Task: structure prediction
Amino acid sequence: MVHYGRRSPLFSDKEIIFRSGGRAKVFNISSRVQMFLMVLLIIIGGWSAYSYYLYNKSDQIISFKNRELDETRDAYVDLMTDFVAIHRNISSMFTLIDEEQLQDELNISRYKQQAQVVEEKIRRIADKKDWVKTDELEEKTTLRDALLQRDRAVSERNKLLDKIEVLEDNIQRLEMAEMEILNRVGRLSDKEMSKIKEAISAINKSIKKQNKYFNPLANSKKDSAGGAYEPDIPAVKNNELNKKMQDVFAQVDDLGYYREVMKSVPIGKPVWSYWLSSSFGHRSDPFNKKSARHKGVDLASNKGNKVKTMAQGKVTRSGWNGGYGNMIEIDHGNGFKTRYAHLNKSYVKKGEYVKLGDTIGEVGSTGRSTGPHLHYEVIYNGTQVDPMAFIKAQL
Result:
């Protein structure tokens, strides 16, 4: 008896009939087999979905790690650039001021050794780098390969972070050393600049009496240019260090300019051993005892003592000049000239260029002279000024 309104169970026994060549074959599938097949299909489908999700997720992870790795590499390169910049700055600072002058205030060798030690550490770090090639990271043939590549990227990133930590520590110590060097170079620059300005002030006391004034910032060697000072040195990311560096390099640049100017200012004594036998200005003439104006100073000294020039310049006269006897005149530029009279011998000729400290002749008593001495004149912008201010000034 058939009941049409009754539903059969989902996994009831099934029959599959195959007809072939007029014959029929019947296959019975029990409910247990049906349930087993259904569970197997669910497991396969779930595993396929999970594998697809995990593969895509791994691809995202690799892309993210690649970005992290690139950023870490960039950070490492930036730090290496910073290190090179700081090392170059420290090396360049040793040339700012004469090494002999720095030796008294600054132990140069200690800073050079420190820079070399840090440089060697950085070199060793750089030599040990083992980069993961980008094309290798892009080869995602299987899920296992993708996961391995992800792990390699993470491992490299961790190694780079360790290197960066060491590099940052080395750079910090280098920056501290550079700051100390900058401070000492600044103090040395201030000290020498003060000496130069004191010397300029001393000679201006003499020059002002003749209604003249020497302004080193307005001399002919000053370039007609302007603008903010931008030192030709590598910049680093430490703003405080950059500011200090700019200030000190500007300070040293000014010092270099003043040094160049002072090469044309005749400061110092032209003969080593002397005594002042006649000063600058009005005096009683040694021959007729009448009041006369003396245009220089007479520095009594032994015949044959060497006469030196106290500034660089060009010889404009060399030879006999009436009452001056054998005389040399040197044009130093920037309005300054010097004259050396009554010489026993002259070692230079007209048109020659001389440097500071060059020997140009010997003390004598030629011309209108009562005994061995050097008649010494300093001329500024066409007017004789008291040479003793220049002789006593010190640099």
